[in-house]
């Protein structure tokens, strides 16, 4: 679902925002980007906050795998 | 974007409601938005604009907020049951107002009670100088009684039942 459509649904509904947001699947990265730009004290901000709750963005962290190399050890 | 930052006295709270016989209640999301939404219902004395709202003269603001709601599970032989908090409903408000039969706000309340199906946005605003915090909810009026006992002024007593989930907090 497009993020703009999801925001529109959440801004106009009279239902529980949590219940409605559960059924709206949107791109988590788009939500984070839009939330960063949204002005507080707007319906869009309220909608994005609820969407972010149910579409958490998972940060990819790259870690170097260290393999113990004991081949140079003389036993 | 600031809420009052001190302990507020009870009389700092005031009650406001949308005007119009068949108002369009604010959506759930907009109940949490002060600017251009909740502020239009709250009057200028409480830092709103009051373009589409009117004050409700009440004797006191009753307790407002959320009810308590838990699901309890008991197991025989267990000392204590498990109480799991669930999403609780906004609390109903029974309000006493001095009765002026021609008061515009009370006439709207009387009409709502007669209908029983009109959803209207109500706001309780607690104010300290230029800062206000607002509890906005959509509700329907149920009880509407006149207490015309001779020992005191006539009173209108009515109950507002908030619609489930339709409430929000906002501030200036």
Corresponding CATH architecture of chain B: Roll
Percent range of helical residues of chain A: 40-55%
Separate helix tally of chain B: 1
Q: What is the distance, rounded to the nearest whole angstrom, between the alpha carbons of the first and last residues of chain B? A: 5 Å
Specify the structural class of chain B: mainly beta
Uncertain stretches of chain B: none
The coarse silhouette of chain B is globular
What is the class of chain B in the CATH system? Answer: Mainly Beta
Give the total of beta strands of chain B: 8
Largest sheet of chain B: 6 strands, antiparallel
Tell me the domain tally of chain B.
Answer: 1
Specify which chain pair forms the largest interface.
A-B, 16 and 20 residues
Number of strands of chain A: 0
Give the neighbour order of strands across the main sheet of chain B: 2-1-6-7-8-5
Indicate the CATH topology of chain B.
Pnp Oxidase, Chain A
The number of helices of chain A is 4
Order of helices and strands of chain B: EEEEEHEEE
């Amino acid at each position: 679902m497009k993020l703009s459509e999801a925001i529109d649904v959440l801004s106009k509904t009279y239902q529980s925002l949590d219940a409605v947001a559960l059924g709206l699947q949107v791109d988590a990265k788009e939500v984070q980007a839009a939330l960063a730009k949204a002005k507080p004290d707007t319906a869009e901000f309220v909608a994005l906050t609820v969407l972010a709750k149910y579409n958490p963005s998972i940060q990819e962290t790259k870690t170097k795998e260290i393999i113990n190399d004991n081949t140079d050890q003389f036993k | 974007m600031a809420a009052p930052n001190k302990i507020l006295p009870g009389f700092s709270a005031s009650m406001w409601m949308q005007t119009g016989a068949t108002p369009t209640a604010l959506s759930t999301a907009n109940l949490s938005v002060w600017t251009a939404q909740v502020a239009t219902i709250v009057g200028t004395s409480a830092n709103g604009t009051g373009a589409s709202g009117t004050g409700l003269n009440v004797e006191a603001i009753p307790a407002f907020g959320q009810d308590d709601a838990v699901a309890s599970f008991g197991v025989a032989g267990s000392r204590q049951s498990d109480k799991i908090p669930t999403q609780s409903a906004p609390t109903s408000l029974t309000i006493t107002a001095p009765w002026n039969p021609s008061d515009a706000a009370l006439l709207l309340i009387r009409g709502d009670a007669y209908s029983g199906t009109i959803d209207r946005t109500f706001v309780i605003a607690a104010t300290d100088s230029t800062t206000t915090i607002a509890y906005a909810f959509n509700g329907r009026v149920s009880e509407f009684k006149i207490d015309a006992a001779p020992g005191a002024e006539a009173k209108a007593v009515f109950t507002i039942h908030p619609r489930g989930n339709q409430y929000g907090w906002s501030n200036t």
